[in-house]
Amino acid sequence: MIGQLKDKQIQLKRIYIEAKLPEPLQPLKELANNLWWSWSKSAIELFESIDREQFISLRYNPVALLEELSPARAQELAADSSFIQQLNSVYAEFQSYLSEEPAADSPQIAYFSMEYGLHISLRLYSGGLGVLAGDYLKEASDSNSNMVAVGLLYRYGYFEQAISLHGDQINNYPPQKFTKLPIRPVRDAQGEWLKISVGLKGRMVYAKIWELKVGRISLYLMDTDIDENDWHDRTLTHQLYGGDNEHRLRQEILLGIGGARALQALGVEADIYHCNEGHAAFLNLERLRGYVREQQLSYAAAVEAVRATSLFTTHTPVPAGHDYFHENLLRDYLYNYALELGIDWQTFVALGKIDPHNHDELFSMSHLAIRLSQEVNGVSRLHGAVSQKMFNVLYPGYNPEELHIHYVTNSVHYPTWIAKEWHDLYVETFGEAFLKDQSNKAYWRKIYDVPAEQIMGIRRKLKARLLGYVRDTLQEDLTRRGENPRSIFELLNAIQEDALVIGFARRFATYKRAHLLFSNLDRLASILNNSGRPLIFLFAGKAHPADGGGQGLIKHIIEVSKRPEFKGKVIFLENYNMEMAKLLVQGVDIWLNTPTRPKEASGTSGMKAALNGVMNFSVLDGWWAEGFRPDAGWELPLERTYDNQELQNELDAETIYNTLEHDILPKYYDVDETGISERWVAYIRAIIAEVAPEFTMKRMLDDYYSRFYNKLYERGQLARQNGCKQAKAIAAWKQNMKQRWDHIELAQADTFDSDNQALQTGEAFKATLRIYLNGVQPEDLGVEVAFFSRVNEEELELKFTQELELKAVRDGLAEFTCTVDPKLAGVFEYGFRAFPKSEQLAHRQDLPLVKWL
Ligand SMILES: *Cc1c(COP(=O)(O)O)cnc(C)c1O
Q1: CA 61 to ligand 1 centroid distance, Å
Q2: Which EC numbers does the record give (predicted)?
C-alpha cells in the first residue's frame, strides 16, 4: 500500500487533528499547557492517575498524554466523579495561582539564556546552566516577579545519550514534535504569527516566536525552522551547542539581537536586562542600536543608558565555557551593524578585546557583556573572587578584590527537586507557612523533632525507588546495547538493596574528575568487597560531543563497571536528565563531587540532594565552600597540596578512600537493634536543618533583587528620564575625563621618607601630593594611598586604601594630603593613585581609569 502511494506520486497534505476532550476534562488541557503542573505535586498526581505507565513512557509529557488518550478512557475519566473532583480541585488551585499579579511598582526584568532546563519533555537544556535558568523562572513565578524570558526553541535540542557495547558514547538527536510541547504561537493584532528577522551575512533570517508558560512567567522562544528560510538557516535552531564556531556566532546573534527584537515586537520594554552567561551578550548591542537610531542618542550616551540597566552573570572559570570569535568572522556578520551604531570597527571590536589593535586576539563575549553591563556577578562566594581575578585584565591598576564583580550563590527550586515524601513531612512538621519563607531556618530546624524511624523510613523508601529504577533501566539499556543475557542477569543480582549508595552525576567535563575514584582500583576493590558493608556507586552524565576527554572518562567507567569485582557496585546509567537527577538526588545516601579546584563555579546538584536529606562529600569549592558543615557532610580541602595535578588527584583519591573506610562506612553501618544508626540520622537532620534552607531558589531570587535589580532599577530610571538627560551628562563627563586623563601629572610629593626610616606603630603616615590638573575639576579627581603586602612576585594583597583630602587649588595645581595610622606592623608596599570621582558613577570600574602616581 505504502509503495503504491509513492509510485503514483499522489500529492499529500498535512493535517493536524487535535484530540477533543469531553467537556468535564477540558481543564486538563489548560493544565498541561502551563509548566506549573511540573512542580505541583497534586497536578503531577492528577496526570499520573490518568495512565501512569503511559505517562512515564511519554517522558511525563501531559500534552502527549492527552493526545494519546483513547476516547474510551477519556469517557471513563469524564464519568469518574472522584477523578473529576480531583481535577477540579487542582484546576482551582491553578486558577488561584494565576490570578495573582506582581506588585505594580516592581521592575520588569528581561532574562536571556541559551538554555532552559524546565522539564525532560522540553529538550532545551544541556546541564547545570540550563537547569539553573529553569529553576529561576519557576521561582520568579512563585514569587510573583515581573519577569519575561527569552531563548531559542530547538528542534533537536541537546543530544540523548546511548552507550555502545564498547563503552563509546552515541549521540542521538530525535526531533521534538512541537505539537506535543506546551507552547503556543504568538500572534500579532492581525492574527499573524509574530516573526522577527536578523541579518546574517547579508541575508535576512526569520524566526517565529513561541510562548511557553512557566506558571505566571512567559518564556519566548525563537524558531528559525520555518518556510521563509532556506535550509541552512532553518538548521540554526536545530541543536543546542552543536555546530562550529560560526554556527555558534549565528545562534548568538539570533539569541541576543533577535531576542531584543522579539521583545520589542511583543511591546515589552523591560527595566532591567539580565544576561545569563555571555551567550546572549549581543542583546545589549541591539539595545544600543535602539537608543542610537530611534532616540538619536550619541553612541556614548546610549552606552550609559544600556549599562545602567544591565546585569551580567558569569558562570564558569573554565575557558571553554566562554565564547570567543575571531575578528574576521565577526566582521563578516557585524560590520554594517557597527556602522549603524555610528562607530568605527576599532571601537566596535574594542568591546570584546583587551587590545583592539591586536588582530589575533579573539573577541570575547564575556568581555562584551561586562563592558555593557554596570553590574556583574559570579555564582558563589569563591567564584565571585575567581571571576575578579579572571576579569582583572580589563581593569589594570586595580587589584582583583577591588573590582565591582560580586556574587549570588546559585540555588535550586524547592518544589521541583523535593521528593513528595519529604514535602509531605515538611509541610506537616514545619507548617504551610514555610513554603512562602523557605530560607527561614526556624522552620527547617523542626526536623530535629522528627523521630529517627520516620526519617529513615523516607530515606529507605526513596532508595528503594531509585534502585528499582536502576534495575529497570539497566535491563533495558544493556539489552539494547547487546550485552549477553547472563551477564545482565548477574549484574542485576549483584545489586544489593541495603547498600550505602553514593551518586555522582553531572556533565562529564574533564575538570569534574569523574575518574578520580578509580585512581587506585585495588584499593577501591578492597573497600567495595568488604563484606557486611555493601557500597554502590552510581554514575551518570553526558560528555559534550566534541569533548573526547570526557567521553574517554565514560568509557573508562563502563570498563571498570564490567570487571567482576565491581559488578553491581560501580554502575553507569545512560542519558542523564532532569527526571533521572530527581531519582538520584532523592534516592542516594551521599552525593559525591570532585571538581578540580577552583573550577566548580557553584554546582547545584548537591543542593538538590541536601533538600532531600542527602549528605554531600565534595571539594570545598563552589557552593560547598559555603554549605559544608562537619556534622552535615564531608570535605576535600580547598587548598591544593600539589601543583602537579596527577599528584593532587592521587592525594584526593586517597582522602576519599580513607574517609569512606574510616568515617562514612562505620557511621552508616553503626546500627542499633532497630536497624538505625543514630549517628547517621544526626547527619541527615543537620543537612536538612542547617544547609538546605540556604540554597533554595527563593533566597537566590531575593539576593538578585537586593544586590542588583533594585539598584539597577533606580539607576536605570534616573539615567533614562527626560530623554536620557542623565545618561547624556554622564557620557559627556566620562568623555572629558578620558580626554584629559593622560595629562594629569604628579607635580610634587612630600611623603614619609620610607626609603630611610621605619614608621613606628601608632605613628601617622603623612603625605602631601601636588597634582597638575590639566583642566580637570579638582572635585572630579580622587587620590588615595594604597598599602599592600606581597604574596609572591606577581601578587599583592591589598591591606587598605585611604583617600587623600583636597586641601587647596592654586595655578592649576591641586594639593592633596593625608594622615593615616596604618594599624599594621611588618613590611608593606604602598603607592598613590588617582581615579575619576563622581557621585554619578555606580562604582570605580564604571569608568575604569586609574593613574598610579
Ligand atoms: C542539576 C543538574 C545538573 C547540574 O549539576 P552540577 O552538579 O551543578 O554539575 C546537570 N544536569 C542535570 C540533568 C541536572 O538536573
Answers
A1: 21
A2: 2.4.1.1
279 within domain boundaries: yes
Q: What is the CA(130)–ligand 1 centre distance, in A? A: 9
- 756-781 pLDDT, tens digit per residue, is 989 999 899 999 999 999 999 999 99
Residue 47 belongs to a domain: yes
Provide the percentage of residues in the chain whose pLDDT is more than 90.
Answer: 92
Q: How far apart are CA 623 and CA 539, in angstroms?
A: 21
Q: 439-468 burial, b for 16+ CB within 10 Å, e for fewer? A: bbeebbebbeebebeebbebbeebbeebbe
Q: Which helix (H) or strand (E) holds 527?
A: helix 521-528
Å from CA of 183 to ligand 1 middle: 24
Domain encompassing residue 753: 742-852
The region, left, alpha or beta by phi > 0 then psi within -120 to 50, assigned to residue 277 is left
DSSP letters for 418-433: S-HHHHHHHHHHH-GG
Residues 374 and 288 in one domain: yes
Query: Dihedral of CA 286/287/288/292: which sign?
Result: positive
576 lines ligand 1 (CB under 6 A): yes
Q: Beta strands 765-772 and 781-790: pairing type? A: unpaired
The Cα–Cα gap between 831 and 95 comes to: 64
pTM greater than the 0.70 cutoff: yes
Examine the domain organization and report whether 475 and 622 are in the same domain.
yes
Ligand 1 atom closest to Cα of 412? 1
- How far apart are alpha carbons 415 and 343 in whole angstroms? 48
